[in-house]
């Protein structure tokens, strides 16, 4: 891990606020990076791996556990991480799912401090139709996003290579897609340092612009 990333993630991170509607969002301040993906893709688990804290973000094997936008901060760092409710199937009432799915899309389209969305894709399943819908929204809103494959320990290395090539081809012509794909596993910690380095770079750029 490079020095910038080490300094950023050696600090303790803490929960700032949960938002169930756009009116609950914290005041716009430091840049924000959001972690989006289908329900049960491993957003909360990856966040915990990034910060090296076991229970910063609540995790569950039940899809739909995260039902609001959860904001996490660390002292003096000009970056906020946002754990988003999953979209797609969830073990929750239909109206509840519709409400938080609407919140996800409203936030992605309209948050002025949102600098990058990390779109998490389960390596076992690849891109699905609702992932494509999110990418369409981000392309239209001109919000930069980067594909992060999760649970790569659960597929063979050859299958991962094929998935990386197929995914890169699918995002090649998308205007807001960052071309580099990060393959991660919260179990083996593969890709975690690479993602930390990318977040540290964004934080450093934000600090330089202040």
TrEMBL record:
Its cofactor is Mg(2+). One of its GO terms (biological process) is division septum assembly. It comes from the Bacteria. One of its GO terms (cellular component) is cytosol. Keywords: Cell cycle, Cell division, GTP-binding, Magnesium, Metal-binding, Nucleotide-binding, Septation. Residues 29-205 form the EngB-type G domain. Signal peptide: none annotated. One of its GO terms (molecular function) is GTP binding. HAMAP family: GTPase_EngB. Belongs to the TRAFAC class TrmE-Era-EngA-EngB-Septin-like GTPase superfamily. EngB GTPase family. Necessary for normal cell division and for the maintenance of normal septation. This is Probable GTP-binding protein EngB.
